[in-house]
């Protein structure tokens, strides 16, 4: 069954309109394997249509198998083209800007003919097939190479940026198509900022250093974080580190199919709360990883997502103490029928 067939099946199951227009380029790529189309129209019956501008038209014709490629001429209105194929009934769409939503509504005869059904695609993309898992595995292997370079590079006296540069160079050499997101290397008090970037700060003796990085391999991503201590750790640092490590382990035991995603978050949060540092775990435990670095399911205390076999998620508890520093440990994890499997495998720094 193709991914488009699975979307049609999900639409019937959830009572959504039979005609679907996909606008988000990552979603289009998920269904067709092609980047650079304007819209994918999936009718109830008949051929799927991929609308492509002249710049990518020839390439699309050569590469796309699951849809008929239609030329979208320059200056032509995509919404009018879609309207030509959706005469009766409602039209489901994934995501649109407000302006585009209004233009589509006008073309099809009113907003009441449109329905947002992005949740269906979100659900499909959360469950990875064998081909996707293979690519994510490779992205994780490359990320491990990046983290190995980080471990070899970190020492007092060099900058965060130098560490990030070594990590990215190592990943490129290991086969990365590019970073999965902007590499984070933060040291000292800046470790209290979960998304701190990588700057000119110089690592000092005794600093915490957090490195959070990922690779992209044929559009699929990976995500790993390790926390290092440059030199000898003090008692407080050891306590923070051991707490996060235990929280990650407790979460890992709850990352399994047919379990609510929030259970894993709560298991980690309980460990951190028990040490009195609960207020310093300022983000969710994790998120799905795939074509995007943040996708479904969400592993957070308020999530309603149910974990399923084939989910690839991060497990990344942290403690961030303002004015002092922070610790985060993260691994990308696959949910198999037999339980969780870590896909990133760099040894812990401590
Ligand atoms: Mn992450």
Task: Please provide a written account of the structure.
- The chain has 350 residues and is an alpha+beta fold.
- It folds into two domains: 3-125, Creatine Amidinohydrolase, Chain A, domain 1; 130-342, Creatine Amidinohydrolase (Alpha-Beta Complex).
- The protein is built from ten helices and 19 strands.
- The strands form six sheets. A six-stranded mixed β-sheet has the order 4-3-2-1-5-6. A three-stranded antiparallel β-sheet has the order 7-10-11. A three-stranded antiparallel β-sheet has the order 8-9-12, covered by helices on one side.
- β5 (91-93), α5 and β6 form a beta-alpha-beta unit.
- The radius of gyration is 23 Å and the shape is elongated.
- The N and C termini lie far apart (46 Å).
- The mean pLDDT is 96.
- Bound molecules: manganese (II) ion (MN).
- Manganese (II) ion binds next to loops.
Uncertain stretches: none
The residue fraction in helices comes out at 25-40%
At the fold tier of CATH, the topology name of the largest domain is Creatine Amidinohydrolase
In terms of structural class, how would the helical and strand content be classed? Answer: alpha+beta
Cα-based radius of gyration, to the nearest Å: 23 Å
* Assigned CATH class of the largest domain: Alpha Beta
Distance between the termini: 46 Å
| Strand residues, percent | 15-25%
Into how many domains do the coordinates divide?
2
Bound compounds, each kind once, are: manganese (II) ion
